[in-house]
């Protein structure tokens, strides 16, 4: 069983998952220092083809990174963008015409057969295909026209942590590169990520508070929405606590009725337009007597039932998700330890999920 105190005081992480969480500042630095130029060059070559819209395809954790890229493409580039249903190709044999469409397939391993098959079909249909993976020798990288290496290094724990933030940063640099941007807003991330991870003891206190939770609800808006989807997945696959994630707007359309003062609600509140859009939702949650945990905005974190303020003052909203997920990764880890379970080996899971 992993030790219960992996982070404070510079201690050696007590599990594979803990160690990989702790690696993230170094991974972010590596991408910025060793990978950014290649990502910009790939983006420049793609932009020269003048794609008319974009489709993103992924599964699991990578699907949440793809959703983040959808927000980036639509907001930063004004490019219409959608998330694909791979089964239309793999199960139903559909072969849509995709001439001048940018198809971005995101996968940690690059080994899932349905991702490979759908990307191969997209390229045959005329798409500009880009694989974003942690394995440049993967089958997915081989069938795509372009490849973006996220440079996360081997990830041995079943719950993906460092590959998720690496995907976020690589996708941000790629989208910025489509308009010849340098992605300078991301330069602060390695240092700030280190500062967040140094506060693991604060998350451990939250884990003690919620170790017996029977259900959790997570909510956010805008760039924070992919974060709560990924946070919910981490909680479910490690601690087995049912965790439901909603856009704040969707939460008000029915699911708010299940909110009570027993099950915690975790709100990721970005500093920026997403946070502003979420504030009426926070008011409604307080009216419901919710046990509200706020991650993000300092003012909102100070007035919640519990909070974890992030050092995001002056940080561009579009890169804040790289920091927002870190407390949720730590929470999933610490709750799992507090419940007497092993976060490195969630039951019934494999590192490469071979969906078809």
Q: What do you see in this structure?
A:
The strands form two sheets. This protein has a five-stranded parallel beta sheet, with helices on both faces. The protein has a five-stranded parallel beta sheet with strand order 7-6-8-9-10, with helices on both faces. It contains 14 helices and ten strands. It has two domains: 16-187, Glucose-6-phosphate isomerase like protein, domain 1 (Rossmann fold), CATH 3.40.50; 199-338, Glucose-6-phosphate isomerase like protein, domain 1 (Rossmann fold, 3-Layer(aba) Sandwich), CATH 3.40.50. Helices cover 46% and strands 15% of the residues. It has helices at 16-22, 24-47, 60-76, 87-90, 113-124, 139-143, 162-177, 189-197, 200-210, 225-239, 248-252, 273-287, 298-303, 321-338; strands at residues 53-58, 81-83, 101-107, 128-133, 146-149, 216-220, 243-247, 264-269, 291-296, 306-309. It is of the alpha/beta class and 356 residues long. The two termini are 34 Å apart. Helix 10 (225-239) links the parallel strand 6 and strand 7 (243-247). It comes from Streptomyces zingiberis. Residues 42-184, 206-346 form the SIS domain. Keywords: Repeat. This is SIS domain-containing protein.
